[in-house]
Amino acid sequence: MKLPLALALLLCPAIVHAHLISTGLGPVYDGITHFALTPEDVLPVVALAVLAGLRGKVHARRAIFVLPLAWLAGGIVGASSRVAMPEALAWLPLLAMGGLVAADLRLSPTATTAIAAVLGLLLGGANGAAMAQAGAGLRGVTGIAAAVFVVATLASAGTVAWQSGWMRIAWRVAGSWIAAGGLLLLGWSLR
Fold first, then answer.
1. What's the whole-number average pLDDT of the chain?
2. Model-level pTM?
3. Angle at Cα 19 formed by Cα 15 and Cα 20, nearest 5°?
4. pLDDT at residue 167 greater than cutoff 90
5. CA 170, CA 142: separation in Å to the nearest integer?
6. Is residue 19 part of a domain?
7. Domain range holding 143?
8. How far apart, in whole angstroms, are the C-alpha atoms of residue 57 and residue 144?
9. pLDDT at 87
């Protein structure tokens, strides 16, 4: 009885991290992996891409270029200042972006571009601070910005291509689920 317990304790890691930042593959891949494994980052990007895709090709094209550039700029600021958005506000981008998709608002291309810029600066700053603390720095932020570009491009292209009557409703339902995830995070932050 004592031997299995001793083995179990010996095999337990001394340090555990909730978000993987260091993969051992280099700082660019560390950034890509961090983004891919952080739903609080991926879901708002997908929601923005769906929002832009629902509005059309012009909105989607602007969003897929502005979002990663703003993310990179925010990441540079976050990496140099090491000050990020408080974790208690992680619900805000999910709720805001999911709500915009669910509402299916008629936005101008300028409004969509501004939303992409604000989202990129906000989440990029938080990711830049995380990459600086992990030692990946600006190369990690570059990896994240590249992953943001790929995810936003694929999601907006799919949305633009598939907008028949029932698919538009499906995209809006997906937005409502992202907003619901934001409400869930808000509840957790208030407990």
1. 88
2. 0.84
3. 80
4. yes
5. 32
6. no
7. 26-190
8. 24
9. 77
Q: Which of 84, 90, 66, 57 is nearest to 156 (CA)?
A: 57
Q: Locate tokens 């001394």: which residue?
A: 14
Domain annotation covers residue 1: no
Question: Is residue 8 situated within a structural domain?
Answer: no
Asked if residue 107 is part of any domain, the answer here is yes
DSSP string of the chain? -HHHHHHHHHHS-S---SS----SS-HHHHHHHHHHT-HHHHHHHHHHHHHHHHH-HHHHHHHHHHHHHHHHHHHHHHHHH-----GGGTHHHHHHHHHHHHHT----HHHHHHHHHHHHHHHHHHHHHHHHHHT-HHHHHHHHHHHHHHHHHHHHHHHHH--SHHHHHHHHHHHHHHHHHHHHHHHHHH-
Into how many domains does the chain fold?
Answer: 1
